[in-house]
User: What shape does this take?
Amino acid sequence: MTSLAKNLTKAGRELIAFRIGDQEFCVNVMSVREIRGWTKATPMPHAPRYVLGVINLRGVVLPIIDLSARLGMKPAEPTVRHVIIVTQVMDKVVGLLVEAVSDILTINEEDIQPTPDMSSEFERTFARGVLAIDKRMICLIELEAVFPHSESEAA
Amino acid sequence: MDMNEIKEIFFQECEEQLAELESGLLRLNDGDRDPETVNAVFRAVHSIKGGAGAFGLDDLVSFAHVFETTLDCVRSNKLEPTQEVLKVMLKSADVLADLTNVARDGGSVDQARSAQLIRELEALAKGEAPPAAATPAPVAAAPKAAPVAKAAPAPVAAAPLVNDEGFMPVAFSFDDFGGEEESVSDLPAYDIVFKPKSELYTKGNEATLLLRDLSRLGEMSIHCNMDNLPGLDQMDPETAYFSWKISIKTDKGEDAIRSVFEFAEWDCDLEVTALDAGEAGEGSDDDLPMQPVPFDLSVLDGEPDAPIGVVEEEEQLAAAAAAQEAAVAAAETASNVLQMAGNAARASAADKGAAATAAAQNNAQQAASAAAPTIRVDLDRVDRLINLVGELVINQAMLSQSVIENDSNGVSSINMGLEELQQLTREIQDSVMAIRAQPVKPVFQRMARTVREIADITGKSVRLVTEGENTEVDKTVIDKLAEPLTHMIRNAVDHGLEMPEKRLAAGKPAEGTVKLTAKHRSGRIVIELSDDGAGINRERVRQKAIDNDLIAADANLSDEEIDNLIFHAGFSTAEKVSDLSGRGVGMDVVKRSIQALGGRINISSKPGHGSVFTMSLPLTLAVLDGMVVTVAGQTLVVPLTAIVETLQPDAASIHSFGATQRLISIRNSFCPLVDVGRILNFRATQANPVEGVALLVESEGGGQRALMVDAIQGQRQVVIKSLEANYTHVPGIAAATILGDGRVALILDVDAVVAASRGQSLQQESSLAAAG
Assistant: This one.
């Protein structure tokens, strides 16, 4: 309740933090539409490895991305304990499969530290910055980069 | 409702009138000589002019006026609607459409073109052949400088010419209408009999105002004929009883007189007789049995409220047209009411009979022009309804499924209710879809214009033949069809057809034919655009592709592959870069917009005989009947319309063909087997055909393929859900849907799968699409 409580009064940014393996990540809460449990997805032909398939979200066909695989880590083995974070960027809605949601953070812009220069694909493409919260390191994800983009990439 | 809304409605109506106008003209062009067609055309222009006048759209009014005048000549059989005449008229319809668009959206019109057409129309109205300059001048040569905007009302100021009837039209200008009085002594005189029908008043026209307008043309005397006026106890306040006989001396001509009444002429009997100068003034009154009542215009101009008030209070008459009631008051003062009452009583019976016939005629006319009553609905509302019905269908399917699962002993009443529900949902869905379905006619009509314009610019002679214009397809598809079609038509005329001399030399008629057809085929709409031009010059296309590094110099391509090169970005073989094409955008854009609609486009070309572009598009972007099948543990939906038959192959009918191919023999013919699971990469090796089911499908190319699936689950109507909305296009998959168990199932793109089985990999196609 240190930095978090202090910042609540200020008009800061709210982030949702979640866990994949032993790492923590977060995305802007404004782009999260809902969080729901895992349901089996319908696999898509010729889809990249990280696209698990599509599910029905109240009549909308929602692609599910295995965020672990997307970030270049071990592909997830979804269980009922996994959750799907339904996120929206521009007019596209995509579900991100993660292990668990861990926290809701309110931070200031200056709390975000630049990503250490490590010239990895992950750092260049997906990481927007890192946060130090209660001795934990939480990586802020660039949602737009996570979404499947061009046709060629999806195929 | 504010003015802008009314104006918006006017423009919407204009669009309909313009469509009506164009289709009418095209019918005339095809040799239709039905007077009703001419009338319909005339009415369309007339309505546009009327509305435009109300909104003060002067350019539109003046052009429409000239157009209307010429059409009137056709209507009165003074002008034979020959091909030449109709050519001018079709172009005028185009300009009228342009002017309407400019009036709505701003921008500018090609003034030179409209001025040119005004001249041509006038010439036609006077019974001349169109002026020599009428032959389509190349755009560059058009006198751009001609400042015609202000000269728009000038049409009528042309040199007088004696027409067939020996009638000498006299030049006048609209500006003169309110103009100064002139000496009237030996001006031409006219007798006018103006007998309004009741409709005149119900449409808000007023005899007073018409007469006042008329009085501005020159010196006139008016006699009101009140013979038909019944007694007050029998008077129907909404009926017209009066007629007027007017003698006028004016130099403005008969046209000017008629133009005063032009917005009322459908609703009154109007006779305009030109008198010889000597005859004027004398004898004209004698044939009227009635007493001439001196009619003071100031009565009309003054405050009609007073007399109306009296009439209303005493007789409880509903307010009729001010003029008529003012005249009633005048008649009372003339104190011959009693005398007239007797006559009127007798006359009114006959009058009613006449009115009834007139009304019947009117009704018949309206029935002819508007076949069915329609309403305008916001497209958004229809879309919302369609989405909701889609959800309803899914929900109903889920409900049925859970009832079946949970209710093993099958309570019949629930099942029956469910079946009825299913039927109802289905009917609702069909009706909702029907709301969106529209004939492709409007798009085809727009193409007619494109053809005319390009033919003009290129100096080619082109005939557009359309077939199947009433083929219905979803509104969204229609809306998005216009742009690619325009591109293709331009290409067909500009690149496809040869110049007339060249055609003659090749033994073809000088006039090229571009044919546009639409038809339904296997649940899709197939639109074909063919020309009888030179066909694709494969040598040149190939060379160009090599020059542009699209293909390697030694690439070995089939004719079909070469033809399809024209769909590549940055490809244009036109030798001269014109306004129309040759900018290197065109066919690749066409292909992309067709693909975006879930359609495909193909070209086949025969050197010397022309090319055929075939587009196949989905009929609706909302629902389809599908066969639900299992492939490698996945549930897929195959569009039912693509399936010709289903078979259970036995080992004897399967034949290996080469290393990997297999054929199935069906009634002594061989058909390639396609393993859907393999094509979609759902499994690594081909399944054993004997364990599965074969779906015999017909693809767009016409060839048959047997698609191998593991099992058939059943048939179902499914709601199409876009994959592209949140994801991207998936090769081999047309769309997704949601089944009764709430899970997403993919809808197979049969044509893409068949194409893939022809050796083209799905991956390749998609990367091409992404690159193109």
About this structure: Chain B touches chain A at residues 390-391, 394, 634-635, 680-682, 721-723, 725-733, 736, 738, 742-746, 762-763, 766-767, 769-771 (CB under 8 Å). Chain B has a mean pLDDT of 73. The longest helix of chain B spans residues 337-369.
